[in-house]
Amino acid sequence: MDNTEARRKRDLFLFILAGSFMGLYTGLYDPSFNNYLNDVFHISEVARGGLEFPREFPGFLVVFTTGLLIFLSDVRIALVANLILCLGLFGLGFVSPSFSWVVVWMIIWSVGAHLYMPVESSIGVALAKPGEEGKRLGQLGAIKTAASLVGFSVVYLGIRYFHLSYSAIFALAGLSVLASCLCLLLMESRKSSSRRQKLVFKRKYLLFYGLNILFGARKQIFLTFAPWVLIKIFNQPVTTFAVLGLIGTVAGIPFRALLGKAIDTFGERMIIATESILLVFVCIGYGYAQYFGLGHYALWLVFFCYIGDQLLFACNMARATYLNKIIDSPEDLTPTLSMGLTIDHLVSMTIPFFGGLLWMQLGYQYVFLAAAFIALLNLITAFRIHTTKEASLETSLTH
Known about the structure:
This protein is mainly alpha-helical. It has one domain: Growth Hormone, Chain: A. The chain has 17 helices and no strands. The longest helix is centred in the middle third of the chain and has 30 residues.
């Protein structure tokens, strides 16, 4: 084994470890934040929807913040991102005497979280062997999902049996992110062989941008209003979200790994189209479970939809592998992923406000009807995906 391969394996191990700590942070933070807003500040659905604008605005700016750090490698950008994220978490936990301060620390957290997203995918792709990008992202996602299992368990057991406070939960999440920073610091800082572009917007990538617009709309409706349905309509506590997180995590470990292989085998078009069809059923379940005559089982249907929706979020890796197959050069990958994230958030930071108004005026069912329509648009867009994998599958089916 030469030194280059040895360094690659060492960096892969450190990145897996960093991803594990990020998974732990996710398991602590995700089931807690919405209940934190409801239990401590008692905000309405319109206010909850409006809060997504400042929360997602850093995602819209990510292409510019990534451009400001162009002199750094992807690994060092990830390190900076997680340090900012960590600061936001500690602020939420210990320096939030009013809702205004929550917004301030939430924005700081969001800057770090959104800056990390595109470089996480590009680092994972860079550490994969050619032709195995989907498999590698699937493996990394599965490991990260497994680590979040510990976080969900801590939230459930800590709140149920030890009366763990929200401050303590955010502090533990911050420490987990700090540990990931140490792993990233130990990784080799590889500079690109050619100068990366600050901004990449090419006609060739328009379909990728379109997929990101639809993903942003779909994502934000579910991130904002799916938990709010359980909190406001079904009166579910934070421990419920911890249990759902546990179940989704256990299911997500094999699901992500299998999904990565499925992307390599069947291609991105098949995966994104299947995701879209399943999302239509998930939307109907969320919005109309109470009207199916199921009685107490309506809540269980919403639980099932919640877990299914969380699993389907992993399909976003198909968008990253699709881009990797069509880019003109490797230097396009990170800035184009960042541009995709910015376009995604141009939609996602505005959708929740109108979703909140729709909920208030017509009822929450109509929010999910709108989400089902977006899923159908995503299905139509998916059929326009064409790569070498799709072409070879079509050839095999016609012979």
